[in-house]
Amino acid sequence: MTYVYILIGALVVAAGVFVMLRRRSAGQNADDYAATPLPPDPIAAPERQPQRPAAAPTQAADPAPYDPEDPINMQIELLDQAGLHLTPGLTRDHLLAFASEADLSEGPFGLILFVYAEEISDGEYLHPVCPRAGMFDTECINGPGDYSQLVRKIARIGGVEDAITLAQDNVSPSSEGGELHYQIGTIRREFSPVVEDKWVDSEVLVMVMHDVQSLMTDRRLWTFDNGQAFGLLALDDDGASLIHDLAPGLVEPVQ
């Protein structure tokens, strides 16, 4: 019997030790979990924004038609549409007196616009190739009367030559001074141009263009570069747009 009691006591002690170990183990695990940081909340994926379709490239306005099969006649027709007409009686053949067919075919307006600004002789008089165009060499003052001719030429291009009631000058490269007098409509001017050899006084030239343009109703003056010379045209807005569409930057408005 004694052995039985001893065995029962040993079992009770072992059970108590087992319970204590379980409790200690449970407490240690709880502390460990408490000290371990929780993983962060998952970051929500950003909401996908709908993407707009890429804008189509802006299409430039279709330029006026240009037919490379017959470039000279095509350019003549286009300049007609722009309001730049050949002087009555002149044809394509007269233009070929200034340049070859190959050169005139360069375009649009590679050379033909410069020819439109020239003058042609009938054997006795000079006539403009196009009444609304003209070429000006800025080294052209050879003697008295040349400034007056500039005034009349600019007025002719602007279509207001009939408004000139006075145009006279006595400016000469050999003189130390001189005066230009003109009247266009109700505008009367008296200038003393700066004399520098044969060069035109650019300020006087611009003033004449402004005076002429002030009398023009449905057009304005436009220029194009030609080295020390320049071309002058009288165009309405549609005509200037047509030329600009086919030859951007070729003509610029008189400011």
From TrEMBL:
**Keywords in UniProt for this one?**
Membrane, Transmembrane, Transmembrane helix
Give the region (Disordered) as residue ranges: 30-71
Q: Which domain of life is it from?
A: Bacteria
Chain intervals with Low complexity compositional bias? 44-64
Record keywords: Transmembrane included? yes
**Which chain regions cross the lipid bilayer?**
6-21
Q: What's the name of the protein?
A: Uncharacterized protein
